[in-house]
Specification:
mainly alpha; Receptor-associated Protein
């Protein structure tokens, strides 16, 4: 999943169209699961859906938080920056569920007790 976000953020930050980036991700990543998801997102965008709308049709892949982040980026015209933030958060804590909604905390900071 991290590699998907990295590729999407890199392409968007370079000024590439999301449709082009998603098609490229489909070619680069293995089909299961993210390569196929990238192809489905590209098809939805080609039909006129925004990225956040396309992501909503894959709730087992994208959390509500992912969708809300992207939707916020769409509203302010800065999807590229929000995608970079998703990458940063995912790198910082890949297992803590930072982008799950509602949040699930499976990360225990050092020295704390659960």
């Amino acid at each position: 999943m991290l590699r998907f976000w990295e590729l999407l953020a890199e392409g968007a930050s370079a000024g590439q169209q999301l449709l082009t980036v998603l098609r490229s991700i489909h070619e680069v990543l293995p089909p299961e699961p993210m390569g196929d998801v990238a192809a489905a997102l590209a098809a939805d965008i080609e039909r006129g859906y925004r990225l956040s709308e396309a992501m909503r049709s894959h709730p087992s892949v994208f959390s509500k938080a992912h969708v809300y982040f992207v939707e916020g980026g769409e509203c302010v015209g800065r999807v590229d920056r929000l995608l970079l933030l998703i990458v940063e958060l995912t790198r910082e804590c890949p297992t803590c569920g930072a982008l799950q909604f509602p949040p699930r905390n499976t990360h225990t900071p050092p020295g704390s007790r659960r």
